[in-house]
Amino acid sequence: MDSRLFLAKPFQLSSPTQVIKARLRKGEYQVVLRESPFEPDNPEGGDRGRIEGPHGTLSVRRVVWDGNQKAAIHSGDLTGELHAGEDVVAKVDETVRRHNGAYHTVSHLLTSIARERWQSDFLGKLTLTESGGDLTLFGQAARAAANWREMAEPDRYLGADIPVLIYKLSRTEALNRCGQFFDSVVPDSVAEWRVVQFQGIAFPPIPCGGVHLPNLNVLRGVNFTRSRVSGDDLVLEYTCDYIPA
Ligand SMILES: [Zn+2]
Fold first, then answer.
1. Which of 63, 141, 156, 200 could be disulfide-bonded to 38 (CB atoms 3.0-4.6 Å)?
2. Which range of residues forms the domain containing residue 58?
């Protein structure tokens, strides 16, 4: 099974699990779990959570996905000891998850609004920065740069009771519902797609393996700090105001 628990149970932040491997490497402790609620490979710093065992606790500072082992490697500072075979509890820091989920969910919202208003199939990619989020809209989005602010207005959705649904679709069904242009985006090897949809809004579902808010009612506002054109792409820099975890 896939050890990335957040894919199957996206809003679960804590899980009883078991240590598969624990080792000290280059001065840093690395732990592999049978199942992990942590999202690997997102860029924020600081404490991301804890792995609590009977004789020690790892403060998790970094989580990376190892494609060869098909496992998340949790790194950080160890107090006490953790050993392979031990039962532990893995706990994601709620503040970190809320922050990532808010920025990531807003990136889908903005991309969906822009796609609908501009009648265009393009993709959005979020980069989290120290000051907020940078959303790059790819694929001729730059031509709409002059009037993006009127066209990509998220206010009507912010704070509304709109659950964020996460479910799986076969590739054929996903292409029909998400848009055929995703055929060249999602590798052929992915037979079953995890998709995200805002309940009750006509936006098509979006294929995604990220972390999200459970509901848009957590959002209080989005403030655009800068926009810039980069070749054919449009980059929107924003900060989110959300109800803390
Ligand atoms: Zn997503």
1. 63
2. 5-92
